[in-house]
Automatic annotation (TrEMBL):
Name the record gives this protein: Bax inhibitor-1/YccA family protein
Native source organism of the sequence: Isoalcanivorax beigongshangi
Pfam families listed in its UniProt record: Bax1-I
Protein origin, superkingdom: Bacteria
Subcellular location: Cell membrane
Keyword field: Cell membrane, Membrane, Transmembrane, Transmembrane helix
Segments passing through the bilayer: 29-47, 53-71, 78-98, 110-131, 138-159, 165-183, 195-218
Family statement drawn from the similarity comment of this UniProt entry: Belongs to the BI1 family.
Transmembrane helix keyword on record: yes
Membrane topology: Multi-pass membrane protein
InterPro entries for the chain: Bax_inhibitor_1-related
Main location: membrane
Length: 225
């Protein structure tokens, strides 16, 4: 009898955990969808206003300030505003880049292709996590080290104009961003992530880095860079 009660208790606990994970996933996707709209509108605004080159250090500085604010407010409803701040800022700073590609032969084709490839990778990695329901938490340390190395490489690329370094950094960010989407989605469905604000930022930044990396790679191999 005690064993039966224990099994029932475990079943109820598992059901409750699954329901919490499903709620976090719904909230994350909902906020992510709105964030993509905010980012697209911000990018369109920057493009329509003809905003020119923005210093990369300003882009990074503002981004980290917003990221810090998000980390402080992620457990409150105010954290949603910081999410829109991050996504809006990254969208706004992407507008001038898209305008630059628009001036190149076939540049907009590269932009649309990068967007399509980003959507396919996101759908694929999400499907793997949802269908297999495997715990990919073992990727955490690899991703942390890999992103740190890629970020240092990106900063170095601002000082040293070495095409091979830029290409390597873009390839690293594309791979790591793809795996980060898989890792974060897996964390949500397996109960390792219960904060949809934090999860949304992780997924959006992964999509952002994936898109820019693919765009740069397409530009290089398409002869636009």
């Amino acid at each position: 009898m005690d064993r039966d009660y224990r099994y029932v208790g475990q079943a109820h606990a598992q059901t409750a955990a699954n329901e919490r994970a499903a709620a976090v996933l719904r909230n994350t996707y909902g906020l992510l969808s709105m964030s993509l709209v905010v980012s697209a509108v911000a990018a369109w605004f920057a493009m329509s206003m003809g905003i020119g080159f923005i210093n990369p250090f300003i882009v990074i500085g503002v981004y980290f300030v917003l990221l810090f604010a998000n980390a402080k407010l992620e457990n409150s409803s105010a954290g949603i505003l910081t999410v829109f701040g991050i996504t809006g800022w990254l969208g706004f700073t992407t507008g001038p880049l898209i305008n630059a590609y628009a001036q190149m032969p076939g540049g907009m084709d590269a932009v649309f292709l990068a967007l399509a490839m980003t959507a396919v990778v996101f759908a694929g990695m999400t499907a793997i996590a949802l269908v297999t329901r495997k715990d990919f938490s073992f990727l955490g340390r690899f991703l942390m080290v890999g992103l740190l190395v890629a970020f240092v490489g990106a900063i170095a690329g601002l000082f040293f104009k070495v095409p091979a370094l830029h290409l390597m950094v873009s390839a690293m960010f594309a791979l790591l961003s793809s795996l980060l989407i898989l890792w974060q989605t897996s964390a949500i469905i397996n109960g390792g992530e219960d904060n949809y604000i934090r999860a949304t930022v992780t997924l959006f930044v992964s999509l952002y880095n994936l898109f820019l990396s693919l765009l740069h790679l397409l530009g290089v191999f398409g002869g636009d860079d």
